[in-house]
Design brief:
The chain has 374 residues and is an alpha/beta fold. It contains 16 helices and 13 strands. The protein folds into 2 domains: 186 residues, Rossmann fold; 182 residues, 3-Layer(aba) Sandwich (Rossmann fold). The strands form 2 sheets. It has a 7-stranded parallel beta sheet, sandwiched between helices. It is globular, with a radius of gyration of 21 Å.
Length: 374
């Protein structure tokens, strides 16, 4: 059965798994993908996917004028869908889901899929938006949860129709875990003065719900016992100045470094220099960085959320903290300081290869589309 799927994504200039979809589609001539970016300017990622043989379209979208942009995007998308007549429209984030699903329904597209990868945001941070999450759930014919925790939330808080709901984990090509090099690792150690230090890394936006304040509080406890610890915070975000002040107040400047975003080519090697990857988010629908860290063999200490909760068995292939607190995070690091981290990291890598391989994600979606079109 031939398939034509239109994928939408808003406000993102880089979506690695779109590239992976485009690359995989080259091996499957019966699957045709079109990617639509709703963005303030034409993102470079469209060139990447176009080079892989997929059609790419840019529709201007200004998230600072969201209401107007949504209203403008609906007729533009409806015209596109009426012209292209895709087998399915697949949306991924709230800003592309609302106009995309409305337009697809108006255009008569029978299969309308939403991957719920930003679920909980409105519930915790913008409650007025919850009604629109529920509207999207009604407009979609199929809802995809990316973790068990995400699935439970969609059912219990968004009151979604269980018959629509499917669990498909995000996936990462296994070769991404083989992209570490000794040269890059050495450069990163020198860049962050990490030689002879016990490196604890976190890759996430510098925002409240990622839990950086808890990590800093845990660091304050731990460095008194283990002065060789070095925390690397890879990310940017609105909380950066607050976190930098907190680090200075606690006199942790020699133990906490803000790295900014790490270049994509360096990310595997960045995980490779970590003795532990630490994640303290309140809720992750999935958490790509958790799966990435595991695939790269970094022992993971995490709150029991998203990809961590679905793959980690405490003490065997990682460590899930007992509660979301500085004390619990510190206890997880203490465990890793004494543990056989190489064995834990390898077992974590094997668990991630089994659960979070990109081929599983690809097959999950292709099977969903085909079943829906029968």
């Amino acid at each position: 059965m031939s398939l034509h799927i239109i994928h939408l994504m808003a406000n993102n200039s880089s979506v690695p798994y779109f590239n992976w979809f485009a690359e995989e589609a080259r091996l499957h001539p019966e699957v045709r993908l079109t990617f639509v970016a709703l963005h303030s300017e034409r993102p470079k990622m469209l060139d990447d996917m176009q080079a892989r043989g997929s059609r790419c379209i840019w529709i201007p979208f200004d998230d600072k004028r969201r209401k107007l942009s949504v209203l403008k995007a609906i007729p533009a998308l409806r015209r596109l869908f009426k012209k292209e007549r895709p087998d399915a429209v697949h949306v991924h984030l709230f800003d592309d889901a609302l106009p995309g699903l409305i337009a697809a329904k108006l255009a008569g597209v029978k299969v309308r899929v939403i991957t719920k990868q930003d679920t909980t945001f409105h519930w915790y941070y913008a409650p007025k938006g919850v009604k629109f999450d529920r509207l999207n759930n009604r407009l979609a014919t199929h809802l995809v949860a990316v973790s068990e925790e995400c699935k439970k939330f969609i059912l219990e808080k968004e009151h979604a129709d269980p018959a629509k709901l499917h669990l498909i984990h995000h996936g990462i090509p296994p070769e991404q875990s083989g992209a570490q090099t000794e040269e890059r690792k050495q450069n990163l150690r020198e860049r962050f003065a990490a030689k002879d230090r016990f490196v604890i890394g976190t890759v996430a936006r510098l925002i409240e719900w990622k839990g950086y304040r808890l990590i800093i509080d845990a660091a304050e406890q731990l460095v008194k016992e283990h002065p060789q610890l070095l925390f690397l915070f890879a990310g940017e975000g609105g909380q950066k100045e607050e976190l930098e002040r907190l680090v200075k107040e606690k006199k942790l400047e020699q133990h906490v470094r803000f790295t900014g975003w790490i270049e994509r080519a360096d990310i595997p090697s960045f995980y490779g220099i970590m003795d532990t990857y630490l994640h303290a988010a309140a809720f992750e629908p999935f958490g790509f960085v958790i799966a990435e860290a595991m695939l790269n063999g970094a022992p993971v200490v995490s709150t029991a959320t998203g990809a961590a909760a679905d793959a980690i068995v405490t003490g065997e292939n990682g460590y899930l903290v007992s509660e979301r607190s500085a004390a619990a995070l510190a206890e997880g690091i203490r465990f890793m300081l004494q543990a056989d981290r190489k064995t834990i990291g390898e077992k974590g890598r094997q668990a991630a290869l089994q659960k979070y391989a990109f081929r599983n994600m690809w097959n999950g979606y292709i099977n969903l589309y085909r079943e829906a079109l029968k």
